[in-house]
Amino acid sequence: MTAHDLDQLTNALPILIPLAIAELALVVYCLVDLFRADRRVRGGSKLLWAVIVLVIGTLGPLAYLFFGRKDM
């Protein structure tokens, strides 16, 4: 890693840190919502939705929120 690369990373941190925190908050919210006792999901598999939320980055939690949850 060169000094120029390090400078670019340092300049990007004020943007990357809030994005990482928002991503983590989204994942935690989705997992808490998913494993509520009364939550029903499309496809019937909470475990599969948990894997999708954890593995597919930002799109996984968004897919769960928009497509995975069933109305109670």
Describe this structure in words.
This protein has 72 residues and is mostly helical. The chain has a domain at 23-72. It is built from three helices and no strands. Helix 2 packs antiparallel against helix 3. It is elongated. The protein starts with a helix and ends with a helix.
Give a short summary of the structure.
With 72 residues, the protein is mostly helical.
Estimate the helix proportion, in percent: over 70%
Given the structure, what is the number of helices?
3
Main sheet specs:
none
What is the overall pLDDT average? 91
Task: Show unreliable segments.
Answer: none
Strand content: under 5%
Q: Could you spell the SSE succession in H and E letters?
A: HHH
Give the terminus-to-terminus CA distance.
52 Å
Number of strands: 0
Secondary-structure class:
mainly alpha
Net shape = elongated
Our Rg estimate from Cα atoms comes to 16 Å
List the helices and strands and how they pair.
Blueprint (H helix, E strand, L loop, with lengths): L2 H32 L11 H10 L3 H10 L4
Key terms for this structure?
72 residues, 3 helices, 72% helix, elongated, mainly alpha
